[in-house]
């Protein structure tokens, strides 16, 4: 069964060199209430989410929007949506093709 989320507001994205997953800090709407959560999603699903953002006029670029930090294991890339005024952009009907892990706060 595919995970489908009706309303997703992304706060922060973290990608680490060599990892096959990204960490996405977000707010979802569940039963009429906003719930803070973290998704651990495949890079393919992250691209799907970026495409959803693109349809909303939000162009996300790894080279232009992400901050890069060098570590002993490669680079760590972070994107704070608030920095670009995108914290209130809501993605509708977001579904994932691969299994995701989710942590709710």
- Work out the helix count: 2
What structural class results from the helix and strand content?
alpha+beta
How much helicity do the residues have?
A: 10-25%
- Average pLDDT reading: 89
Rg over CA atoms: 13 Å
Count of domain modules: 1
Task: Measure the end-to-end span.
Answer: 23 Å
Number of distinct beta strands: 7
Q: Unreliable runs, pLDDT <50, ≥5 residues? A: none
Profile the largest sheet. Answer: 7 strands, antiparallel
Principal-axes geometry comes out as globular
Binned strand content = over 45%
- The succession of helices and strands, N to C, reads EEEHHEEEE
Summarize the model shown.
By secondary structure, the protein is of the alpha+beta class. The protein contains two helices and seven strands, in the order E-E-E-H-H-E-E-E-E. Strands 1, 2, 3, 4, 5, 6 and 7 form a seven-stranded antiparallel sheet that branches.
């Amino acid at each position: 069964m595919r995970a489908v989320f009706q309303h997703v507001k992304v706060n922060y994205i973290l990608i680490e060199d060599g990892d096959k997953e990204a960490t996405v800090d977000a707010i979802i709407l569940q039963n009429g209430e906003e719930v803070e959560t973290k998704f651990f999603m495949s890079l393919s699903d992250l691209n799907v989410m970026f495409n959803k953002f693109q349809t909303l006029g939000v162009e996300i670029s790894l080279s232009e929007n992400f901050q890069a930090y060098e570590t002993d294991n490669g680079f760590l890339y972070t994107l704070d949506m608030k920095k670009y005024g995108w914290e209130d952009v809501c993605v509708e009907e977001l579904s994932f093709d691969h299994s995701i892990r989710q942590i709710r706060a």
